[in-house]
TrEMBL record:
EC number, as in UniProt: 2.4.2.17
Entry's family note: Belongs to the ATP phosphoribosyltransferase family.
Keyword Protein biosynthesis: no
Gene Ontology BP annotations: L-histidine biosynthetic process
Catalyses which reaction(s): 1-(5-phospho-beta-D-ribosyl)-ATP + diphosphate = 5-phospho-alpha-D-ribose 1-diphosphate + ATP
Cell location: Cytoplasm
Subcellular location, principal: cytoplasm
Name of the protein described by the UniProt record: ATP phosphoribosyltransferase
């Protein structure tokens, strides 16, 4: 078998081969214990402990491969699934790659209503979603908006005189601002998702991957807090750290109690302040390296 041949019995998992999602997806797979060794310049890699082969593909093609059943499972954006009208099962949201697909017009044009762009020229990498967005506005105004596809550097189109507005992804807004554009409307909110083919014959592996990835995502969202307190404040501090299910309480030999509980990372600083104010002491916070709920 050549290095580029896929074992027909393997579950195929598609990962964006480069771009801003690549690092996040590979970190997630590592954290979830999906181990593989990718040779330089090869777009496939066999997994170490699962009958699975990783395939590295352009993010914009992954939903097509999964939808058509060439690949069993993959990571891509909601925007790509919707643009390609791919019939895939959404297994879970991954909590990264969040951004908005926006209608953007030059600040100098002073356009603030998308209706004022109906009948004009739009340039985008998302022609299907853009058409869906403008169709009802066009119908209302009795005009046809011109939608032209470009594969990249969409933000340059207005400056080059090719478009009156663009439809492009906005994360921080830096690219948009640098091109002298501003948001006029939002077509779609998107983030990275795990997708699978509904007829995949590798349901058990898909389920296992889902649990592994969920465990990793939970471990990134939560920290473990532990502290000591006296019996009289146990109810009060327990209500500050109720945990996912309930706090773990251990009786200490001096009559006090040790409490440990999961707390959302976003809330941990406030929770520590509240615990200290309520009388808890020896408050320690631990990162989680993995979890399985
Ligand atoms: P920003 O300057 O952070 O708003 O990023 C905007 C540029 O990055 C646009 O050209 C987008 O095409 C691209 N981009 C932003 N977020 C994503 C994402 N989650 N997935 C793919 N491309 C993105």
């Amino acid at each position: 078998m050549s290095a580029n041949t896929v074992n027909p019995d393997h579950c195929l998992f598609a990962v964006p081969k480069k771009g801003r999602l690549y690092e996040k997806v590979t970190a997630m797979l590592k954290g979830a214990g999906v181990e593989y060794h990718r040779e330089p310049r090869l777009d496939i890699a066999i997994c170490k402990d699962l009958p699975m082969t990783m395939v590295f593909l352009p993010a914009s093609d992954i939903s097509k491969y999964v939808g058509e059943g060439n690949v069993d499972i993959g990571v891509t954006g909601i925007d790509i699934v919707e643009e390609n009208c791919s019939e895939v099962e959404r297994v879970m949201d991954l909590g990264f790659g969040a951004c908005r697909l926006c209608v953007q017009a030059p600040v100098a044009s002073q356009i603030t209503d998308v209706k004022d762009l109906a009948g004009k020229r739009i340039v985008t990498s998302f022609p299907t979603l853009t058409k869906k967005f403008f169709d009802p506005i066009d119908a209302e105004k009795g005009v046809t908006t011109s939608i032209r596809f470009v594969s990249g550097s969409v933000e340059a189109a207005c400056g080059l005189g090719l478009a009156d507005a663009v439809v492009d992804l906005v994360e921080t807004g830096t690219t948009m601002k640098a091109a002298g554009l501003e948001v006029v409307g939002t077509v779609l909110q998107t983030e990275s998702i795990l997708i699978t083919n509904p007829d995949s014959k590798h349901k058990k592996i898909v389920e296992l991957l889902k649990h592994r990835i969920e465990g990793y995502i939970t471990s990134k969202k939560f920290v473990m807090v532990s502290y000591n307190c006296s019996a009289d404040i146990l109810d009060a501090v327990s209500s500050i750290t109720p945990g996912k299910r309930s706090p773990t309480i251990t009786a200490l030999t001096d009559g006090g109690h040790a409490v440990s509980s999961l707390v959302s990372k976003k809330e941990i600083v406030r929770v520590m302040d509240d615990l200290h104010a309520a009388g808890a002491r020896d408050i320690l916070v631990f990162e989680l390296s993995n979890s399985r709920m």
